[in-house]
Every structure is written in C-alpha cells, then in structure tokens.
Amino acid sequence: MGPRTSSAILTEGLTKLYGRRPGIEGLDLEVLPGEIFGFIGPNGAGKTTTIRLLLDLLRPTAGRATLLDRDAHRQSVALRGSIGYLPGEFGLEPRMTGRQLLEYFGRLRGMDDLGVAPAMAGRLDIDLDLPMGRLSRGNRQKIGLIQTLFHRPRLLILDEPTTGLDPLVQDTFLQILREARDEGRTVFLSSHILSEVERVCDRVAIVRDSRLATLETTESLLEKRRKRVVMVFAAPVDAARFAQLPGVTDVQVQGTAVSLRLQDGIDAVVKLAAQFTLLDLRVDHPSLDEVFMGYYGEQK
Amino acid sequence: MTGLRTELRRMWIFTAHQLRSRWRSLTIWGVALGAMGALYVVLFPSMSTFMQEYLEQAPESLKGFLGELQGPMTIEQWLGMEYLSLLIPVVLPFAVMIMGARAIAGREERKTLDLLLSNPLPRRDVVAGTVLTMAIVLAGVLAITWMLTYIAVPLAGVDLSPARLAYSLVALWPLCLLFGVLALLLSAWVRRSAFAITIPAVILLAMYLAEVLGQAAKSMEPYRVVSLFYHVGNPVEGDFPWTAVLLMLAGVCVLTGAAVAVFQRRDVFT
User: Fold this and answer.
1) Position A35 in a domain
2) Which tops the pLDDT comparison, A25 or B219?
3) pLDDT tier at B187 (50, 70, 90 boundaries)?
4) N vs C: which end of chain B shows fewer Cβ within 10 Å?
C-alpha cells in the first residue's frame, strides 16, 4: 500500500481561469487517506476542472495541489504511478482489445502482469478480448474502470464513473469502491448521481459557481437539512401553531393531516402534537438529492 | 541513473506500442513507393529511347532548359527526374505529418490523451517517442522502397549502383522527418490536428514549387535557396548532401525541443 500520508489530496487556493471565466476559484480542500470523498455540483460548477488540475492536465492560474504528500505539478509523473484516474469522457483505440490496452498500460507502470484486471473483468462481466471498437458504451466504461483500478492505486480519482452502467453493475462498482476504502485506499469521486454519493461517500463537498460551497460528512449534511414530518390527527388541528415553532417551514394541511419541514430537533413538534390525538407520525429524511437541490436553490 | 533508465524504458514501451499499431501503414507505404520505384526502373529501357527521340525533335529553347538531359539518358537521371525528386520527397512526408498531427492534437480530439497521460509517462516522452517512431517508420519505408526498387534492376537489365540508390533515399530521410516533426510541434501547440497537417503541407508544397519554378525561370532562381529540395539536390546523380542533411537533423532536434517545451506548458483538454 505504500507509506501512510497525512492527506491524500490537499489544495490551497487552487484556481483556474479560462480567460476571464473561472473554472474553479480559491479551492481549499483536504481529502483524508482511506476515505471515499464525494465531489458534487451541477454541470459547469468546476468539478472536472478541479480533477484535471489534480492530474496536472491543466496548469493552475493560482494556488497549488498536493497529492499523497507530493506536488501535483512538479512530481506529477511519480504521482501517476500511485493514482488511478477515470476521465469523465474518454476514447479507446478501436482496434485494440481491452487486454492489449491493459498490458500496454501495465508495462508503462512497470507491471509484468494484469494485476487484478481479470478478477475485475469477471465481476463487471466484460470480455477483455474483444476489440474495443465493438464494445457498447457501458462496456467501454467498464474497460475504463478496470484500467483505473487494475494496478491497485493508492488514490482513485473518478469523474462520473458510473455513466452508462446498468444498475446491477453500478452496485458491483460501488461495492468495489467500498472494498478499496476498506483496504486503506482513497477515492475521490465526482458525480452528479447523488444517490450513489450518498451510498458510498464518507464526506461530501459541494461546488457551486466555481467555488466550494460546503464540505461536510455525508451524515451531517443529511442531518442538518430539513426533514419532512407528517402527522395524522383524529380531528383537524390549528396548523398555525406548528408554523410558529422554531425551525419549522412549509406547513401544509390536508384534512386531518399536517405536514411540515423541520430544520432543528423534533422535540417541540412532538410536544405540541401530543396536545392532540395523534394517529400517526412519519419522519422522512431527505435524500442527498433533495439536500443538494435545497442547498443549491437556497444559495441561488 | 535508475530514473533515466526507467524513463528510457517507458519511452521505448510507448514507441514500440506506436510502431506495433503502425506496421500495416508502414508496409503499405513501403510497398507502394517501392512498387512505384520498381515500375520506374522496369520502364526505363523503353522510356530512355522514347525520351531521346523526343529530345532530338524538341525546340532549342526546351533543349536549353533541359540542359544536362541532352544525350542518352541514364537510369540515375530518369529516377531523379520525378521519382526521387517529386514522388518520394513530396508524398512520403505526409505519412509522418499525419503521425505528428495525431500524436497530441489528434489524441485530444479522439479523447485518448487523458488515459495515456494518467500513466507515469512524462509529456516529453510522448514527444520524443513520437519523433523516434517517425524516424523508425521512415527508415522502414525507405528500406522497403530501396529493396523493391532494387529488385527490378536486374530484371530491367540497367546499371544502377545499390549504394547510389541507397544514399539518395537516405538523404530524403531527414527531409521527411523534419516535416513530420514540424507537424508534431504544431500538434503540441494547438488542439487542431487538421491545422497541424495543413501548415507543414503548405510549406512543403511551397518549397517544392520554389525549386521547380526556380529551375524553370531565371527570375525565380534566387528563391530556390529557401527550398530544402534545392539544398538536398539530386544525390542519385551527384554527391551526398552532407551539409543539408546535418542541418535538417539539427532542425529536427530544435523542433523536437520546441515541441517538448510547448507541450509541457500547455493545458490538455478533452
């Protein structure tokens, strides 16, 4: 696995401008070793720019990035030996087979075998001996995933990795990511499929308009956001009393049912509801999707 | 030392991979140009008689222009008229110009550059490995060309020295390589492979025209000096152009260095 590092990824004021248009601005970020880190945001928010800066494919306008305690630019070649990267969009040589591609990349990495590629190909159900020009989009994506992982990198940087995969393969892939984390590898996952981020990520950063909007554990991000509470009473109640409680918004009444959004603790709501005959109470925790949309809408 | 060895090994892996993926086109180019050379040699006996009769009847002005072609034509003159002065030096550079243009800008357009550069392969090795690939491909094509052309010599019963044919082809190797490396430099600089082919192609054709027009018209003669064709001359008939060859090789080194510098600095997009 290699030496333990203090940060898997550390960026300080990382900025990339395309002319006057910002790609990413003043990004300060720390990804810890052994975590799955979600990097989410709408299209054009700066996710891919950030990843390309980390990989030294783009040169920063300002700031710096350190990966595995090495400078992302000056030591990029040495770093790439320890990194598996899956670009958001990539092409494959149509005449080559997956096996030939992996053998070629393996040789460039100083490997004399295919590492875990055959096992991964089995799990992802892909034939490595077909010319890549004959593969479907999903199968080409699987080849991309295998080339990212087959050399067992210490740091995985994945840009929209499950695009084009069917749900079963997505599940298998997310399981592979969890296994990588359990082995102490770090995963930096950019995605707009928030459900998968929610399922595997330990921490999440949201980028918006080329800036880091928030960085929290997935749990606390979900925790902090508004839950929907639905209460069904034996008879109609005065919903205005619920609306006056702290942290309560969006109170709706439908017959004897009252639903509301709740930011803080539920104690005050339960105490007020207990003053009536309560038949049912349901608390819906928001998905990361709702959190993100809520957060994004709120910021706008 | 270990670092240098590792880097050279990686560069060779990259070069060997490119050569493997290009062996078909190398063979096609070599066989096509070699077959053309063999055809020129086989046609020489009948064409020399025809040309001599034609020249005897030609107007004085044309005889003056053709100068040294008056009298019985030699196989060297016949090959130097078109095959070694037009066909190979104008057509063959396109083989490596395409390679140069596709090496960086083309890979960006095909979206394969990201995956390649995600390996521990320095950008300078992509440039140097491509130049090495172009040099080996050109040498291979010219070797096949020499072999096939020379096979026809005993069949046609002509007197052509294998060494003379060889060094006339060797003199074209740096010329073709120079245009390939120019395309690579442009490919490292801009993200348009069509642009990286067009510019060297225009320069190549302009140089060829400058040489041809300079031979044909006195007023154009001073412009021949800007043409590499003028400096390479016609080694199948005369001396080996050492100075031109060495200068062109120096040009290859300078353009390679510039391509490395440009590619190191620029952003890679997909």
Assistant:
1) yes
2) A25
3) very high
4) N
Closest CA to A66 of A126, A3, A144, A12: A12
Is the CB of residue A112 less than 8 Å away from at least one CB of chain B?
Answer: no
| A203-248 pLDDT, tens digit each | 999 998 899 988 989 888 777 667 889 999 999 999 899 999 988 8
Strand residues in chain A grouped as ranges (E): 9-18, 21-31, 36-40, 62-67, 70-71, 83-86, 155-159, 186-191, 203-208, 211-217, 227-233, 248-254, 257-262, 278-284
Q: Are B270 and B120 in contact (CB under 8 A)?
A: no
Q: Which of A68, A75, A77, A163 should one mutate to test binding to chain B, selecting the residue with the greatest count of B CBs within 10 A?
A: A77
Tokens of residue A260, six digits: 């509301």
B48-76 pLDDT, tens digit each = 888 777 777 777 766 666 655 556 788 99
Identify whether A194 is part of a domain: yes
Tell me the C-alpha distance between A4 and A186, whole Å: 11
Statement to judge: residues A256 and A218 lie in one domain: no
Residue A32, helix vs strand vs coil: coil
Q: Which of B21, B107, B119 to mutate to test the interface with A (most CBs of A within 10 A)?
A: B119
Together in a domain, A192 and A155: yes
Q: Which domain holds residue A39?
A: 9-222
**Predicted TM-score (pTM) of this structure:** 0.87
Contact list in B for residue A190 (CB cut-off 8 A) is: none
